[in-house]
Amino acid sequence: MKHALIAGITGIVGGHLAEHLLSAGGWTVSGLSRSPSRLDGVNSLNADLNDPASLKAALADVRPSHVFITTWSRQATEVENIRVNGGMVRNLLQAVEGRGVEHTALVTGTKHYLGPFEAYAKSKPETPFREDQPRLPFDNFYYVQEDEVFAAAKRDGFTWSVHRPHTLIGYAVGNVMNMAATLGVYASICRETGRPFVFPGSPQQWEAAIDVTDGRILAKHLLWAATTPQAKNLAFNVVNGEIFRWNWLWPRLAAYFGIDAAPYPGKAGPLEISMADAGPIWDNIVAKNDLEPNHLSKVASFWHTDADLGREVETFNDMTLSRKLGFLDYQDTVASFTDAFDRLRADRIIPR
């Protein structure tokens, strides 16, 4: 049996990874988070990655063969992002030092190529993004997290992999990066109120080629890299394998909810602004449909979806390195969204 320690078990990536490892067989799964995991079969461990003492206590009897780091903590500035998120990786890997870790996987993202929020997309990098592109001349907590993994691998003798997904699509509640839940909430509010279901992003995103990453294909990729010798000590892009345009996808999302896609107005209309008054509307939808009593801010992260859809540069990723080494999985993008909507409906997070 292999023993996976997943940091961020309650997030999109951590949850899908745990489900995939357990279904694959041959794995014991321990999940680390500040709140308990609800997944059956997971040894739930509660600790704060910023608190070495709580990590030491939670991991006292845990000897993982594989560590998967799938979480981050948003801070007000990139300097703070570096201090906090770099520290989280360092604290975790110090807590399991000398316990026989064979491999550590770090999940980051396409801000590796686009830059941090404070300098987002200012460099206008060439697409498709490729893993051998040099680091940007900006502070970036992803780079610091990578360096912490590299240093610990050299010290403790384990192999590593870095995984750079694009926009994550999957099932999670309370996750700041969950576009599926955010758009599901937005569409549900539009259907309830009669508001037009308008694409809120920039003209460039409406027209440009783009891709996304399903949490399920990322889970497969993480397992593949952790168990494939030729994939060790490499960084990988990981996306669905399908390139699309939002002007093609938007009407298909609308059809799922039984509403019309509004004509694109030619400019961005951020959800943080258009949904500023939506709290009471959402509360009424929750009561009317007997949904789980989640506050709007827990199920929708309008700011993060605005950041993704408001970009003014083309953004998609090359998967050649993974393909050459044998990872050939593909995920239909429409199904990425609709399957996530189905689960959110089944768990009474959004209305049917």
Textual characterization of the structure:
Helices cover 42% and strands 12% of the residues. It is α/β, with parallel strands linked by helices and 352 residues long. The chain folds into 2 domains: 2-165, Rossmann fold; 175-210 and 243-314 and 333-347, no CATH class. The strands form 2 sheets. Strands 3-2-1-4-5-6-9 form a 7-stranded parallel β-sheet, sandwiched between helices. The mean pLDDT is 95. It holds the Pfam family PRISE. InterPro entries: NAD(P)-bd_dom_sf, PRISE-like_Rossmann-fold. Residues 53-351 form the PRISE-like Rossmann-fold domain. This is Nucleoside-diphosphate-sugar epimerase.
Concise summary:
This is Nucleoside-diphosphate-sugar epimerase. The chain has 352 residues and is α/β, with parallel strands linked by helices. It has 15 helices and nine strands.
Helix/strand order: EHEEHEHEHHEEHHEHEHHHHHHH
What CATH architecture of the largest domain do you see? 3-Layer(aba) Sandwich
* Straight-line N-to-C gap: 40 Å
| β-strand number | 9
Protein name: Nucleoside-diphosphate-sugar epimerase
InterPro entries: NAD(P)-bd_dom_sf (IPR036291), PRISE-like_Rossmann-fold (IPR055222)
Pfam families: PRISE
Domain PRISE-like Rossmann-fold: 53-351
Topology of this structure?
Elements: E1 2-7, H1 12-24, E2 27-33, E3 42-46, H2 52-58, E4 66-69, H3 78-95, E5 103-107, H4 111-114, H5 141-156, E6 159-165, E7 168-169, H6 179-193, H7 203-207, E8 213-214, H8 215-227, E9 234-238, H9 246-256, H10 271-274, H11 278-288, H12 296-299, H13 302-309, H14 320-325, H15 333-346
Parallel strand pairs: 1-2, 1-4, 2-3, 4-5, 5-6, 6-9, 7-8
Helix pairs in contact: 1-8, 3-5, 6-11
